[in-house]
Specification:
Blueprint: H1 2-9, H2 23-26, H3 28-38, H4 50-63, E1 71-75, H5 81-88, E2 92-96, H6 100-112, E3 118-120, E4 133-138, H7 148-161, E5 162-173, H8 175-179, E6 184-190, E7 201-210, E8 215-223, E9 228-236, H9 240-249, E10 252-258, E11 272-279
Parallel strand pairs: 1-2, 1-4, 2-3, 4-5
Antiparallel strand pairs: 5-11, 6-7, 7-8, 8-9, 10-11
The chain binds S-adenosylmethionine.
Residues 22, 25, 46-47, 76-78, 81-82, 96-99, 102, 123-125, 139-140, 142 line the site of S-adenosylmethionine.
Length: 286
């Protein structure tokens, strides 16, 4: 018991491992609850609220002309809330996601609406294709859940996915957001089961901050009568200069910046930034 609690409170070195962060999307039981949250039109969790998504997709369609002939890649597409709208505008859409449950829903919706969307159940850290896209996007702060190595790998993959003048859009949380976060530990007894397990379980959760690295670490330990599960997540927060350097080193230049994924004007002190970046031919030290 003492050792288990000691392990729970242990503060790992930054990015010591990132082996369990996908469980919330891929676990048979948790992914069912995640899909419900994606599809709740009111809340910002898993996906943003439906009103935001409608405005965001409409802005992207008109701003980047995501209509006929355009080949569009939705990375981490989830249940296809963006893919569906962009395919309805006439674009040729491919969506990639690790969650089979979300893609089953997305495929069902596409069939109902007679839309031809190519959904691929793979990790964008591993997926390779010879196809080339005009426009790729990764929406709802997914970039910041990756380690430095994983971000490098993703940017290198995106270089391969895009046509030479192709664009990549993504959103990240800023350092202003980081400053508002506080460390915490908590223990809850879910007597009738809950979000993370259908069985009764104790949930130990903690959040640590790494000031120098502008990084947070979340750990959930789920203890059932006969089973234990650990889910750990790293979240990176960026200054503008940091992300600019990271992109430059990967061979991308920022061509546009906004404070939201629906095109709101960029400001210095916003909680999030949306960037549109372009491949620099020959650029990158990967
Ligand atoms: C926060 S949700 C956003 C979903 C969607 N972009 C939206 O805004 O509605 C993140 C999505 O990325 C997927 N995901 C996370 N890591 C992934 C990876 N390495 N490869 C592919 N999909 C991933 C998850 O399964 C989940 O559907």
């Amino acid at each position: 018991m003492f050792t288990k609690l000691k392990n729970f409170f242990e503060r790992p070195k930054p990015y010591e491992s990132n082996d369990t962060y996908l469980k919330i999307w891929t676990d048979e039981y948790i992914s069912k609850n995640m899909l419900e949250i994606h599809l709740n039109p009111q809340i910002d969790a898993a996906s943003r609220n439906l009103d935001f998504i409608n405005k965001s997709a409409n802005w992207m369609i008109s701003k980047f002309d995501l209509t006929k002939e355009k080949k569009v890649l939705d990375l981490g597409c989830g249940p296809g809330l963006y893919s569906t709208k962009i395919a309805e505008a006439g674009a040729n859409v491919t969506g990639v996601d690790v969650s089979k449950r979300s893609l089953d829903y997305a495929n069902k919706k596409a069939q109902e609406k007679c839309l031809k969307i190519n959904y691929i159940n793979e990790s964008y850290l591993e997926w390779k294709t010879a196809e080339k896209f005009d426009f790729a996007y990764l929406i709802y702060l997914d970039y910041h859940a990756l380690t430095k190595e994983q971000r490098k790998c993703l940017l290198s993959n995106i270089k391969g996915y895009l046509k030479s003048n192709g664009l990549f859009l993504f959103d990240i949380p800023t350092i202003h957001n980081f400053k508002k976060i506080e460390e915490m530990t908590n223990c809850i007894f879910h007597e009738k089961g809950g979000f993370l397990s259908p069985n009764p379980y104790f949930e130990f959760e903690l959040l640590y901050k790494y000031e120098e690295e502008e990084l947070t670490f979340k750990r959930h330990v789920i203890i059932e009568e006969e089973h234990e599960n650990i889910i750990e997540m790293w979240h990176k927060y960026f200054t503008y200069k940091e992300i600019e350097d990271e992109l430059r080193n990967a061979g991308f230049a920022i061509v546009e910046k906004y404070s939201t994924v629906k095109g709101d004007v960029f400001g210095e002190n916003t909680d999030e930034i949306t960037l549109v970046v372009q491949n620099q031919p020959g650029g990158g030290d990967l």
